[in-house]
Every structure is written in structure tokens, then in C-alpha cells.
């Protein structure tokens, strides 16, 4: 089976209709918060943000936004780029940013591949991919975001010595990720004991999806890799 897949790595984009307020925010506020990939990326990604930030972190597929918003609140000097194609989730985060006045978040509502290709080389201080779509049926594994090409994209954008963090509750995806990381060679798994991949990262807020996984008896794994 080849890892190459031409097409999106996510499923449906729309769910329930948005409220009038969230529809208005998506039409009027999101364009101001969204990355403009028609323009070259700034040489220094800190220039993307309204707030003065010292470092920049990427989260691919932020889902309900629980983790993205928590990190943005607790780390006002870190700029966060959040990517999520699902309209309802994006609208939730846009509404929270408007209500709380957070100036250290920028957004993108389409395929993360586009952003990874747009970012300057060695420009990210950290990257997260938390509970990506596992595509559990074997015939769909080619749609998993972690593959040789996308790891190369991460490796190009993440600074040497910076962390790439991955979480999943699907054993086959955890094994898949470890194997692809090993074969790629651009990242080193930092775990030295079981607690390193069984325990979440510091100040972990949990996510809605993680809560569902735990209720259904699935066990999350938290993998930390360093860009070498």
C-alpha cells in the first residue's frame, strides 16, 4: 500500500446550521482572523498576530477548539495558528475569540497541507495534531494525515529542536504514526518510559473528543517528538 493520497484528509465540513450571530461572525470576523495564503508568508510568523508574541505554535485539526483556546488563554505571548475545516467548530472558536478579545490566534478553514506548504522553513516553535480523523477502516488508511509527504511538510516547517505533539485513542493510528516517524527520520520520539506516552502534557485541558473516547473505553496516547 502506498502512503500517497491525492485529496483532502478530512471528511464532512458542515453539520447543523449556524445561528444568525455565528453566521455573521463567520462572514465578517473570520476573514480578518484567517491566514491569507494568496500572499507570501511573513519571514517572521510573529508578524501575523495582533498581540505581541514571542513564539508561534500550529494546531492541525483543532476540533471543538478546547485545546487551542485553553493554550491561547494561558500563553498570551505565544501565537497560535489553528486549522479546522469543520464549519461548526470554526464558528465556535471565532465566537470565543470575539467574546474574549484574544489577539494571539490566527485561523485557517481548509486543508492543513496548504498552510504547511505556505509556512517558511523552520518557522514553527511547536506543532500539535490531536485526535486526527483515524480513518479506522484499513482501506481508508491512505487518508490518514500522518504520511511520508506530510511528515516532510512538518519537518520543513518545524524548527530543529522543537516539538511535534500527537495524540490519538486509536491503537492502529498510534502504531502507524510511530512507524512513519521512525521511517521518516526527521523526528525523534522522546519517550523513555510508559508514563511518557500514557500521560498528557502539562496543563492538559482535555477535549470533547477525548472525553467521548474515555467514556467508550478507548485509551488516549500522547506522543512527543523532537525535530532533529
UniProtKB/TrEMBL annotation:
This is tRNA (guanine-N(7)-)-methyltransferase. Belongs to the class I-like SAM-binding methyltransferase superfamily. TrmB family. Pathway: tRNA modification; N(7)-methylguanine-tRNA biosynthesis. Keywords: Methyltransferase, S-adenosyl-L-methionine, Transferase, tRNA processing. It comes from the Bacteria. Residues 1-22 are annotated as: Disordered. Substrate binds at residues 137, 169, 207-210. It catalyses: guanosine(46) in tRNA + S-adenosyl-L-methionine = N(7)-methylguanosine(46) in tRNA + S-adenosyl-L-homocysteine. Its EC number is 2.1.1.33. It comes from Roseibium aestuarii. Catalyzes the formation of N(7)-methylguanine at position 46 (m7G46) in tRNA. InterPro entries: SAM-dependent_MTases_sf, tRNA_(Gua-N-7)_MeTrfase_Trmb, tRNA_methyltr_TrmB_bact. S-adenosyl-L-methionine binds at residues 59, 84, 111, 133. HAMAP family: tRNA_methyltr_TrmB.
Amino acid at each position: 500500500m502506498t502512503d500517497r493520497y491525492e485529496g483532502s484528509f478530512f471528511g464532512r465540513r458542515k453539520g447543523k446550521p449556524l445561528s444568525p450571530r455565528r453566521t455573521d461572525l463567520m462572514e465578517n470576523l473570520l476573514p480578518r482572523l484567517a491566514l491569507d495564503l494568496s500572499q507570501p508568508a511573513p519571514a517572521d510568523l510573529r508578524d501575523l498576530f495582533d498581540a505581541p508574541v514571542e513564539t508561534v505554535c500550529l494546531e492541525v485539526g483543532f476540533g471543538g477548539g478546547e485545546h487551542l483556546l485553553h493554550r491561547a488563554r494561558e500563553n498570551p505571548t505565544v501565537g497560535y495558528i489553528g486549522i479546522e475545516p469543520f464549519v461548526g467548530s470554526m464558528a465556535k472558536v471565532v465566537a470565543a475569540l470575539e467574546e474574549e478579545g484574544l489577539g494571539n490566534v490566527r485561523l485557517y478553514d481548509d486543508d492543513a497541507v496548504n498552510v504547511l506548504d505556505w509556512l517558511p522553513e523552520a518557522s514553527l516553535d511547536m506543532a500539535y495534531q490531536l485526535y486526527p480523523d483515524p480513518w479506522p477502516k484499513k482501506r481508508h488508511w491512505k487518508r490518514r494525515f500522518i504520511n511520508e509527504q506530510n511528515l516532510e511538510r512538518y519537518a520543513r516547517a518545524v524548527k530543529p529542536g522543537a516539538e511535534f505533539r500527537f495524540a490519538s485513542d486509536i491503537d492502529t493510528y498510534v502504531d502507524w504514526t510511530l512507524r512513519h516517524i521512525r521511517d521518516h527520520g526527521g523526528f525523534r520520539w522522546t519517550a523513555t518510559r510508559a508514563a511518557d506516552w500514557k500521560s498528557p502534557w502539562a496543563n492538559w485541558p482535555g477535549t470533547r473528543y477525548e472525553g467521548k473516547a474515555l467514556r467508550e473505553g478507548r485509551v488516549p496516547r500522547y506522543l512527543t517528538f523532537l525535530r532533529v
